[in-house]
Specification:
There is one protein chain. The chain has 74 residues and is mainly alpha-helical. The protein has a single domain, classed as Orthogonal Bundle (Multidrug-efflux Transporter Regulator, Chain: A, Domain 2), CATH 1.10.1660. The chain is built from four helices and three strands, in the order αβααββα. It has a three-stranded antiparallel beta sheet. Strand 2 and strand 3 form a beta hairpin. The N and C termini lie far apart (35 Å). The relative contact order is 0.17.
Length: 74
């Protein structure tokens, strides 16, 4: 594997890392993905099941979301 392709590789992150990356609380993250919530964000990446009770997020989608929000802020 080449080093420059490593960042493009699929990786799953859990809620704790997502909180650190985005600077958001657990409850805020779940409000952002909940349709009907006043904090719902249709651009926010959706989690997927990785176990019976566990969910994760695609790191590539999270990075794309951060970049989108940076561009919107400019």
């Amino acid at each position: 594997m080449q080093i420059d392709s490593f960042e493009d590789e699929f990786r799953v992150i859990r809620i704790n890392r997502l909180q650190v990356m985005l600077g958001l609380s657990r409850s805020t993250i779940y409000e952002r993905i909940k349709p009907g919530s006043k904090w719902f964000d249709s651009d926010f990446p959706k989690p997927f099941k990785i176990g019976s009770f566990a969910v994760g997020w695609d790191l590539r989608e999270i990075r794309a979301f951060i970049e989108l929000k940076k561009q919107e802020g400019r």
